[in-house]
Amino acid sequence: MDWTAITVTTTNEAVEAVSNILMEHGASGVQIDDEKDYEQLSKVDWAKKGEIVDVDEIPHVKSGARVTAYFPATIYVPEIVPEIKRQVIGLKAFDLAVGSAEVTTDKVDEANWATEWQKYYHPVQVTRFLTVVPSWEDYQPKAKDERIIKLDPGMAFGTGTHPTTKLSMQALEMVIHGGERMIDVGTGSGVLSITAKQLGAGDIRAYDLDQVAVDSAKKNLDLNPIASDVKVAANNLLNGITGEADIIVANILAEVIIPLIPQAWGLLPVNGYFVTSGIIAEKADQILAAQRQQGFKIRQTLKMGDWYGVIAQKPGDDE
Question: The pTM is what?
């Protein structure tokens, strides 16, 4: 079966929002070609890993990012392209820089589509303990305490390569000590829920507004038996959710974090942690101020490139 690829030329800042738009229009997966990812690949000592990789030979953008989505023949692409363009331009209303926002299409046969993902993804050691491994890789841990997170990057974004995902994983490593109840808001590929399980978290509930992302997360959870008991469902942020959680994590757009702050406050016990990422530098002060106004104490801010992550905590009466 032939597929149609729709590519949006945009900025690093808008990658996740553009990916969401494409998935909502029925894409079977998104591929992100981001200059920031290639900066990270170029820093890897591939010889030490026993591989010969010339990063410069991998086709990639020199600036900004391209988000490519693949649509089956059952979707009439010419009909949805104008709407995709309109929605991408509309992201400016949320103060997101969208770059040229050029939308192009191309035909791709199924064999090429199936192998495209594998060009761009390799095992990524996010922290000393956490390594994200594409599902097709035969990867062996390099240390006894290394924990492997298996993902199929072709299903959804959130593969451990983007700075916002890395910051979230690093933050979870800092706050999880064992047995914590957690809620994962905007779970995407499910990578943060799997991370939390690998770090020893207890009961986990994961939510995403998009049913495609929910289905993707379930498939990735199946690749990681340790996360088999994670509960995944479609939901709009934490609307209607009850029951306390010791940790609430959200790797989502800064604009979406704002309405989530009071919801998280209501579900966290004293000393519970609110971990957020997906915050571009220009929005960091706004998010920090909103969390402080709610009553959260900012325990730590994490930074990678232009992106921030925040570890906040609900304090007791003595603080």
Answer: 0.73
